[in-house]
Amino acid sequence: MIDPAGFLQRYYIDPIIHDTSYNPVDTVTWAALLGLSLLALLWLLPRWGVVMDDKLVLSSLPYVLAGSSLRVIEDADLVAAPWRYLLITPIIFFLVFFVTSACLLFARRIWGESYHARYAALGGLWAAANLAILFRLEIVNGWVIPAVFLLGSALAAALWLLSRRLSGLGFLRNRFNMMVIWAHMLDAGSTFIGVDWFGYYEKHVVPTALIGLSGTAAVMFPLKLLVLLPALYMIDREMEVSPARSLIRLTLITLGLAPAVRNTLRLTLGI
User: Fold this and answer.
1) pTM (2 decimals)?
2) CB 32 within 8 A of CB 26
């Protein structure tokens, strides 16, 4: 017979308290919660007088950097328990969501239809404050930032050039689809450098298994493309311009860019 308290402790509480790897149970749970959160956002945004479009996608990107850098503040042990638990996945997702929502509502209420730049600026200030705290620490591996950027950018650029020649990859000519690819190539690059060169480990279930089988985190590059290319193709083919399509693109960008920024900052600071 399953002990509910023990089940919660093993699969949900311990991974947060000890900041350990994900397991199949919490992975499925957080994925389902993400889906429900997206549906809730599609319902909430019109009621806030906010249009989910490409302009909002761009102005929300500073909050991705803010959330990622906030996570690194916890990695660096700059926050003591129990407050540090607020900065561990998945709780940090809710924290960043509420702060971002508050900034969005504030900007929309104060500046009306011209809120996008101010909303982005608030996120930029938050991110800058986090980075100012982090870069008071010693920079151990300063070369990691340009290495991750150049590796991810080179692979994304190669795919973009390929899309100019292959009609089947024409959907990559859309700048937001390309942003998704670029974000995830940065993520794959940071994982590859962290695991293969620094001995870090991957926390997610499927990538961990594939890295173990292949013996290298370079497997992340084809794995990302194997998932993203069909997904982006279907989004472009089956979904018309809509709030749902913009929100999915923002989500995909965030799922790549957030860990890329976190990994790169950790490696740079030797955390």
Assistant:
1) 0.89
2) no
